[in-house]
Amino acid sequence: MEKNTISLNNIFSIIGKNIVILLASTILFLLIGIVLAITSKRVYRLQGSALLNLSSSNMQSAQSMYMWYYMPNIMNNQVYLIKSYALMERVYNTFPEEIKREILSYSEVKFTKKQDKIDFISNFILASLTIKPMEDSDVIIFSLDINDPELGKIILTTVMETYKNYDQEIQKEETEMVKKFLEQETEAYREKLDNSETLLKVAKTKFKSPYLGNEAKTILNKYSDFQQDYYKNKINLAEKKEHFKFLQNKIIQFKGQLKNSPPIYSDKINFLIKKISDLEALKISLKAAGYTENNEKMNDINNKLGILYKDFKKEMKNFIDSNYSNGSFAIYQQDILNLLNIQKEIAILNAKNDSLSDILDKYENELTNLPEKQLELTKLIRNVSINEKIYNMLKERLEESKIQNEGVLSKITIIDKPVIPSGPIKPKRRMMVIIGIFFGLFLGLFLIMLKYYLFTPINGLYLKEKFKIPFYLEIPNFSKIKEFKELNESKIKINPNSAIGEYLHFIRLNCEASKMMENSLCLITSPKPNMGKSTVSFLLAYANSLQKKVLLLDLDLKKPGIKTILPELKNKGLFEYYKDDKKKLKDYIQKTHIDNLDVLLTGVQDENIYSLDILLSQRLKDELNELKKEYGMIFIDSAPLNVTTDTLSIGKWVDHIAIIFDANKSTLSASEVTIQRFLNLNIKIDGLIINFKGIKQKDNYYYYNYYSDEK
Fold first, then answer.
1. Is cis: bond before 427, omega within 30 of 0?
2. 301 vs 62: which has the higher pLDDT
3. Contact between 446 and 14 (Cβ < 8 Å)
4. Residue 545 burial by Cβ neighbours in a 10 Å radius (0-12, 13-18, 19+)
5. To which H or E segment does residue 7 belong?
6. pLDDT per position as a tens digit, 640-673
7. Which residues contact 24 (CB under 8 A, 6 or more apart)?
8. What sign for the dihedral angle of Cα 222, 225, 229, 230?
9. What residues form DSSP beta bridges with 358?
10. Contact (Cβ atoms closer than 8 angstroms) between residue 36 and residue 432
11. Which of 99, 195, 116 is closest to 388 using CA atoms?
12. Is 337 left (phi over 0), alpha (psi -120 to 50) or beta?
């Protein structure tokens, strides 16, 4: 290829030349894909779904009070609940022993303690279980990935059923608590009613007058209403305290599974509860004093209560959001909301009872003014009336709780039960084979292009055009020609009619055509050693000496090469010149056996003299500029670029620079980097020479074959 550009035809050509790489890469990864497809474990995905009934009475109650809490928060809370340790422990206890053993067989460790078994089975399930609420709905999707579909079906079915039963159990436990409390209270008030009725009968017989006076009736009617409210509040208060205790115990069950206990109290909330309960108690006192709901003072209290209840809800939201928004604490949200709300109701009921107690004490004092018989009879009638009303109320609520307890249903409805899937989701064998082929093709193409860019042989014409280099020369490989080998022998001249002689004329003509190498300093270098730099420098000097006087200067001070080409010369030169301030450069210039070709060698190396001290000396620069007037051309054989910085240090004060590359060893990318190093230092490259070019090429020196075939 003449240029380092990629067209469609070039791509096909590059691939065609490297088809073995492409085929090998494709076959290799095809085999890898097949092996992985065969050896990979099959993974089955089992799915099920459950509906969370948000229309249940408890849900509707909470939803009406705390709209901000429900959807999507309630759905996310269910996810935390399902994946909680409490539920996983119940799942473990539900499994038959053979299922436990089958799951434990996946562990490399044999467990002896029950807790270790629970932990492993819980982690095994949670690692493969995915719980996700369906967007904009109250449906929860269960998904389990496992390599044994039969076992997976049992596990997922157990998880879903346990979740449903656990929810029902919690609700059942709560209604059972209410029923048990009401049974105890109903029985207690039945006994109170019986006792109060017996005492009333005895009193009526004793006093022989079962009727009350008008004054006693009036006081008793007022007294009875407030006393009934008092006892109702007292019963409600006892029920709320039992409910509060129940929720606390429920939360404590989860606390042991967490590193930190969740907060269940807030100073701001407690402050608002105190304000609300005080105002509710004040309303009862005003009502007892004869104030109606339309009274201005009552309206003011109701307005204040409206603001406080609004602040209470707002503070509840802030408290939940700041403490229960993430992690396993989220499963407490609903219980904490209920707990704080019950805490508020308990405070209000306590305050109301205190207020009602004061009112009842007032009426008790009024009753003491009645005659003794009327007072005793009034109290007995009052007790019977109150006990009867409360007993009937409790009896009615007990019947309701029994019905509710018998009809408790889980708010969880399983919609889709897990079924064994028709096939595995992993491995997708066909896809693995296709990916193997695709990846093999991709990697093969990548390696081919990498090889093209990193290992493509140097392309001199492309570099000449890309970097706009005016002088370009290709030198064949003369190393096997006898005449070339004899150049090292003293005073051997090149036959002008030989192949090398003809090529010297060709070099001279190229130099003249470039109009570059006239009365100037031309530096010759190469990226690395052993690229024929010294030999090419000699050939360039030899060729130009056919028409003009030429000086060949060896500035490769660390590893000079010109002396090996012209061994007959004395080994003296730059080092001796540098040490002797009285000498001039021309004092060390030596004539050669070639007409018009003089040489200046490096001389005997001195370890005490740094090469850069010589190369950067102003004295050397000045004298070389003077020598340009005497010589038609000065060629400088410089050190390789990648070995020392000598060449870059003198590159700025020479007239021209030519770089030599090895046609067999230099790559295109490395050659571009070498040229770019000069350009980055604002040093222009004027010549490009490709050495050891194959002699069978159909190029400008095709005639070499003609001469080399002659005997």
1. yes
2. 301
3. no
4. buried
5. none
6. 987 788 888 888 888 899 999 998 888 888 888 8
7. 444
8. positive
9. none
10. yes
11. 195
12. alpha
Q: Element (H or E) spanning 145, and its range?
A: strand 139-146
Give the length of the chain: 711
What's CA 355's distance to the chain center, in Å? 61
Q: What is the pLDDT of residue 202?
A: 74
Q: Give me the residues paired with residue 52 across strands.
A: 412
In the block, tokens 């590159």 appear at 651
Q: How far apart, in whole angstroms, are the C-alpha atoms of residue 164 and residue 568?
A: 106
pLDDT above 70 coverage of the chain, percent: 80
Q: Summarize pLDDT for 293-322 with one digit per residue, the tens.
A: 788 888 888 888 889 888 888 888 787 777
Rounded-to-integer distance, Cα 74 and Cα 334, Å:
8
Is residue 521 left, alpha or beta, with left meaning phi > 0 and alpha meaning psi from -120 to 50?
Answer: beta
Helix (H), strand (E), coil (C) string for 326-389? CHHHHHHHHHHHHHHHHHHHHHHHHHHHHHHHHHHHHHHHHHCCCCHHHHHHHHHHHHHHHHHH
For the segment 233-250, the average pLDDT, to the nearest whole number, is: 78
Euclidean distance between CA atoms 458 and 671, whole angstroms: 7
Contact 129, 137 (CB under 8 A): no
At position 670, the amino acid (one-letter code) is A
Question: Which two structure tokens, joined as six digits, stand for 16?
Answer: 């065609």
How many CB atoms are closer than 10 A to CB 610? 12
In this predicted structure, what is the pLDDT of residue 708? Answer: 46
Contact 627, 618 (CB under 8 A): no
Distances (CA, A) of 658 to 81, 87, 540, 599, 615: 79, 82, 11, 19, 18
List CB contacts of 702: < 8 A, sequence separation 6 or more: none
| DSSP 8-class letter at 667 | B
DSSP string over 427-450: --HHHHHHHHHHHHHHHHHHHHHH
pLDDT at 700 over 50: no
Q: Which residues contact 409 (CB under 8 A, 6 or more apart)?
A: 168
Q: Are 251 and 335 in contact (CB under 8 A)?
A: yes
- Going 119 to 73 to 252 to 239, the CA torsion angle's sign is negative
Q: Which amino acid is at 290?
A: G
Q: Give the model confidence (pLDDT) of 13-55 as tens digits.
A: 778 878 888 899 999 988 988 888 888 888 999 999 999 876 5
